[in-house]
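Morning. Coffee machine broken again, so started the prediction first thing and wrote up yesterday's gels while waiting. Chain of 175 residues, entered below exactly as on the submission form.
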Amino acid sequence: MAAWTSAGSQGICIYMKPSRVGLAPPPPSHLVPYLLSRAYNGFTRAWMEHLRDHGVTMAQWQILAILSEYDGARIGQLAEMSATAQAVTSRVVDQMERDGLVERQAVPDDRRAVEVRLTARGRVTFETLLPEANALMDGAMEGIDPANAQALMDGLACIISNLAGAAAVPEHVRA
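Came back before lunch.
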């Protein structure tokens, strides 16, 4: 594959294009899944190296980050916010509880419900990793001005919403 470039206001971004002569580059929207995948994989690879040094998995980091903002969330809420199956989330929380990062507490007015809360160790782990996460994101976003960063976040939120809506529409209706 050959590459073509797009000169932005802050630098040059490289995209892949078919190397066969005579093929026009795909419309920009067709590159979105490819570029999202490349960005996600690059970020995940780099972040997992940091997490490994602290004995934390990516799934555990997600739960730590969510609970740092929504301490006392229930398993179903954690699963929804982390875009993970409830059974998987429950297993991750089980491991985190064994590791002393979180604790489960019964909800006084609903005996069936359980809230998940950060322990002191879980909060320290999150607060130790947060500056590293911020530094990684700052490096990843280098060269993107604030207006474009906001447009990127808005566009990604729209794609997520569109895909969630598409998944909710039965196939026979979409056809």
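Residues 146-168 form the longest helix (23 residues). Going to sketch it on the whiteboard this afternoon.
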